[in-house]
Amino acid sequence: MIVKETNFVTFSYFSESSIMRLDWHLPSIDMTSQDFQDCIYLEKSLFLLYKPTKILANTLNMHYAIDPEEQDWHNSIISPTFQAIGLQRLAIIVSNDIFAQVSISQLLEDDNLAQYKTSYFVDESAGLSWLTEIV
Question: Where are the alpha helices (DSSP H) in 51-97?
């Protein structure tokens, strides 16, 4: 069920599996730094509201390269949020944009507080299977 949609990203929540899905859109190529920050603040508020234990981040159409300063800022906002909601797994469907993908990978590598598992996938079905497998 879609819970929020912007020009840049759509958030859907599936209560039966406790999965929050983020689908980034092609217009992200035109995002400004302020637009990115607005998306992250929205992300935080939705995570705190729905408290998903699993997240599927579909970055196939994300074309915004997150610079190192923004990566640090993002982690200062999102890492404590992930801890607060008890995130268990984060599946990332990788972007076609190499610069965006490298910045996303660096973003997560810098999360020293991570108590959740992260895995990267080239297709959505593999990511969803991993999120819903019984451990």
Answer: 68-85
Q: Encoding tokens for residue 53?
A: 């234990």
d(Cα 86, Cα 88) in Å, to the nearest integer?
6
> Rounded to an integer, what distance in angstroms lies between the CA atom of residue 35 and that of residue 92?
21
Output the CATH code of domain 2-132.
3.30.750.24
State residue 2 phi and psi, 5-degree precision: -70, 130
Do residues 44 and 77 lie in contact, with contact meaning Cβ atoms separated by under 8 Å?
yes
What ranges do the domains of the chain cover?
Answer: 2-132
Give yes or no for a contact between 89 and 54, defined as CB atoms under 8 angstroms apart.
yes
The answer to whether the beta carbons of residues 85 and 51 sit under 8 Å apart is yes
For residue 37, give the H/E element and its range.
helix 33-50
Per-position b or e across 42-69, b if 16+ CB within 10 A of its CB: ebbebbeebebebbbbbbbbbbbbbeee
pTM (predicted TM-score): 0.88
**104-129 residue pLDDT tens:** 666 666 555 568 898 888 889 999 99
